Write the structure tokens for this entry.
Amino acid sequence: MPETVKTYTKKDFTSDQAVRWCPGCGDYAVLAQTQKVFPDLGVDKEKFVFISGIGCSSRFPYYMDTYGFHTIHGRAPAIASGVKLANPDLSVWVVTGDGDGLSIGGNHTIHLLRRNLDINVMLFNNRIYGLTKGQYSPTSEVGKITKSTPMGSLDRPFNPLTVALGAGATFVSRTIDKELKHMQSMIKRSHGHKGTSFMEIYQNCNIFNDGAFLAQTDKDQKAETVLILENGQPMIFGKENNKGVRLDGNKPVIVDIGDKWSVDDILVHDESDYVIASLLSNMTYQTDFPDPIGVLYAVETETYEETMVAQINEAIKKKPKGNVQEIINAGDTWVVK
Amino acid sequence: MGKTMEQVDEVVIRFAGDSGDGMQLTGGRFTESTAIVGNDLSTLPDFPAEIRAPAGSLAGVSAFQIKFSSRDIHTPGDKPDVLVAMNPAALKVHQKEVAPGGTIICNENAFTPKNLKLAGYETNPLEDKTLDDYYRLYSIEMSKMVSLANKDLEISPKIIDRTKNLFALGLLFWIYDRSLESTKKWLGVKFAKKPEIIEANIRAMDAGYNYGETTEIFTTRYKVDKADLPAGTYRNVVGNYALSMGLAAAAERSKLGLFYGGYPITPASDILHTLAAWKHLGIKTFQAEDEIAGITSILGAAFTGNLGITATSGPGIALKGEAMGLAVMAELPIVIINVQRGGPSTGLPTKTEQSDLMQAMYGRNGEAPIPVLASSTPGDCFFAAYEACRIAVKYMTPVILLTDGYLANGSEPWQVPKVDDLPDFEVSFADESNLADGQFLAYSRDKKTLARPWAIPGTPGLEHRIGGIETEDLTGNVSYDPDNHQYMVETRAKKVDAITNEIGPSEVFGNKSGDLLILSWGGTKGACRSATEALKADGKKVSHLHLRWINPFPKDLGENLIKFKNILIPEINYGQLIKIIRAEFLVDAKGLNQVRGKPISSLDIQDAANKLIG
């Protein structure tokens, strides 16, 4: 990436449009952190492109003073792929939600991840359909009572992180709307990753699903319910920093650090280890385990667009100065006089 | 030798056999050799949807028809003069359509009790004399002869038997006085790594040729003179290939990157294959995860300044509807190619139809007008594709280009065009000079075309947002204002209407007034023109008008229509253009509607015309 000479402030990334989310919505925090972090990324402003689908979170591009395209339900990853392939120099961001990215657009999400284009996905997970006023979503817990499920929802939820890992994502992370500093660092990590980065954001919908992440955000509880991941560090949490994740055979268990177990017995996080990432992702929806946040998985490999450009360059090298007239004239021809 | 050479004006040959018998290849080679001698020609491949239906079954019959002539022709012909039937099923399916007194050539070795039973024959038609009163029947042991010709080669009998189509081809080359050289050269390239396969095929072809030369059963050869085509260099071209070249030419002339996003679907996939092979032109192809990602990826590419192209067919076009609406709202240039096939649902995947016109015109939610044009011949697919791209960019709009299965796979001699002679195609992206008082107005418009500026990501100072929610005039901001919505709906419609300025006056073939006007669109042009020529030769006051653009229509269409006492609209659908014409111009047009998965024949059009005007 060429060295940028321009310096920006948060204001440079704030558009003139009034933000229209409900007062108290978690989306505000994500927007503010993004606008705050972007000046530090070292990218010329005109190179940022935000693509979104449909849903509350998908209004995001209107509020960023960058290039933006608010498209149709679920298709943002496919549209973003076209943007990135047309111009690989751009910094492309997809803003989506649990309904947009995992239900109607689930197919595009998994295929973007397996192709590994250098695109950053921010998935706002509020475990509810907000824009359509409160139906259960593919991440809602079983038995969720909503307008469309008066006796409780029947379907088992998707876990966004396991879906991403299963689809072959090269970068999988999670943050929480209330953890501002953590979110900032996750946005920076997403940007720094070469390949598709997948960031799940626990986001509270205070109108239709208030308190969905109360256990993970409440000041008195969160130390016990959230595991903050740091690469190369043991997985320790708890008010007294006295709990940890230990591997019992190949099963993770929560242990108290003290008499029986010491810090040395605690599993050390390794972002490049798919098995660890998989164990961590599966702690979601399990009341016995804390919800991990941070970077679960990060490995680098060639991106789709790099390979595409390489193939084109190779073809041009083999047949330089190709033109359409040559193709038209090829084959058996004859002359009528 | 005692063999006579008879001069004929035109011949229709149909090659038919099992899906695995190589009939498309045989037809393709005969076509190339026919093109080289300078006949005018037109072809019609007709194959089953199944890759390999059960061998010997009626469902598995694949056919290829070619008409060639010393005159200017417009269709692949109606009734074949010659049928090559490689097995009983092929004979059963196609025999009834052979012209009375025509020739039928069969591979006798394939008429086994098992194959006869599969085709539903109780007795062997080659022996029971049922065909002899109507046709000249030649029963030849093709399998046996290729086996003998290749017996000293070290390849399996099964592979040797597969060369029997080359025997048939060799025989036809002899009958119609064609050189074997171009096919020998072609085999050399196709099987470059398998010299024994080249040898076996060449021996089979020579055996067929020599069989015609030496046996007593064929007494006559036929010669079709060169057609009197306009001077120039010609090649044979298949519709989908011509279309792909047209897209590439548009990218080259406009200097835009070409981004093709699509999902494989019959009969559109060949466009993806063709473009994927042209990476040396810088073309980017993206095989998307589904039809929706095909079109949405090109919308992203168009937003980023590329020429976005997708092609599909049948159910694929239904899946793209929502994204087309977004393209209308976002006013981005993309081209959607619909290679129409039989419907509804999966329908007839390999057969031709014109039944998506209504969907192209109206198949979206809301008021979402999209320009629609249709190519009329395989070679015309090149020019139609170029024009679709040029209009899309000039007017900043999605454009739908309709072709069909017959155009896509059919072929014709094509006067090789010069890319430099194509209409100008200049593009300018917006830059800082587009700023008004420091503000970029993404929905300001060119006064003449009503196109909005194309400002692509990466351009400093022009950062802006667009989307599928109704856009405010000038700024493009979200707007729910009633007056603004009314204005924007009208403006998007006016923009499409303004494209009439690009379309010349409609061309009437024949007199400008009379008893009957035959009105056509798309791939039925040739049959309508042939019918008109025949009717005119009969002294009938009949003219033909062919539409390239259906949305918008040429400005003078209405005044041309009312000069005729009758209007006949032949379509391969249940009546679609006719509804638009009747609604738009309040004329009492009559339809000729066939949905048989095949082109309409010029004979049927003549019949319908005669019924109307007596």
